[in-house]
Amino acid sequence: MVTDLKVACVQTSSSTSVAANIRASSKMIREAAAKGASLITLPEVVNICQRRGTLAKAAARLEQEDPSLAAYRALSKELGVWILIGSLALRLGDDERLGNRSFLISSDGKVVARYDKIHMFDVNLADGSTFRESETYRPGDGTSAADTPWGTLGLTICYDVRFPYLYRALAQAGAGIITVPSAFTRRTGEAHWHVLLRSRAIETGTFIVAPAQCGDHEDGRKSYGHSLIVDPWGKVLADGGEEIGIVYGDIDLSKIDEARSMIPSLLHDKPI
User: Fold this and answer.
1) Which of 44, 133, 214, 255 is catalytic?
2) What pLDDT sits at residue 95?
3) What is the domain partition of the chain in residue ranges?
4) What mean pLDDT is predicted for residues 179-194?
5) How far apart are CA 80 and CA 170, in angstroms?
6) Does 35 participate in catalysis according to the annotation?
């Protein structure tokens, strides 16, 4: 197993245009690959950021017809890099709702893992903002992880970060890296983003890689940004701030065993 990894988090502010989002993110993927990143990660709903369910559904395509997936697979093969597509809004065929689906693409352009977001962001915030993700998206029903040159990588998405049992299950199944592509709201991000991601890293002894949406979107959404790479001891290795861009982290995978040997909490479960 390779013991060192340069990972990139691409921080975007996706629009309501699928074609424009493909162009913008592809340019950033090329830049990250040119700077030596072997794993390049994209945020949640990178193909279209649209709060209005009817418009999102109109733009979405079936997986086998989706232009974003095809573009990223081709780019992965061309550049010889692994790409984590944070998530795509996709038609499902058997449900009026969409899937919020993450993909891990190997350096030969193959899909090696899929994950449908399990936990839906159905919340009522103090400022009067309400979100009902379950009205537009169908939740997934299982975990997902894949073997990579850097060990097992576990997939999660955004609101999942508030459910520690998911991360514990992935770590206990062998994951040393867990991805958390997100489109966190600015209000919840300012209060909770950093502490949640650092907590998941510390609890599981894993590297957390969290590419994020940022800025003010066309549909009125305001995303927090601050793509993070966190090591197994909870140290923030990279923070993307609030602007569009790319952040990098040089990961020493020996830190996983080091953290878990000092605090082997994954082995200390007790029945309650």
Assistant:
1) 44
2) 86
3) 4-267
4) 96
5) 27
6) no
Secondary element (H or E) of residue 106: none
Q: How many beta carbons lie within 10 A of that of residue 222, not counting itself?
A: 15
pLDDT at 1: 79
Residue 206, CA distances (Å) to 109, 143, 172, 200 in order: 26, 16, 11, 8
**Topology given in CATH for the domain delimited by 4-267:** Nitrilase/N-carbamoyl-D-aminoacid amidohydrolase (3.60.110)
Name the active-site residue from 133, 158, 214, 255. Answer: 158
Q: Look up 117 and say whether it is catalytic.
A: yes
Any catalytic annotation for residue 158?
yes
For residues 110 and 3, what is the distance between their CA atoms, to the nearest angstrom?
23
The rounded distance, in Å, linking the Cα atoms of 207 and 230 is: 6
Task: Enter the pTM of the model.
Answer: 0.97
Is it the case that residue 52 has pLDDT exceeding 90? no
Question: In sequence order, what are the residues at sequence separation of 6 or more whose Cβ sits closer than 8 angstroms to the Cβ of residue 218?
Answer: 15, 16, 49
Q: What would the two tokens of residue 210 be?
A: 């969290």
Among candidate residues 9, 49, 117, 214, the one labeled active-site is 117
SS3 233: coil
Look up residue 93 and give its two tokens: 């065929």
pLDDT tens string 227-241: 999 999 999 999 999
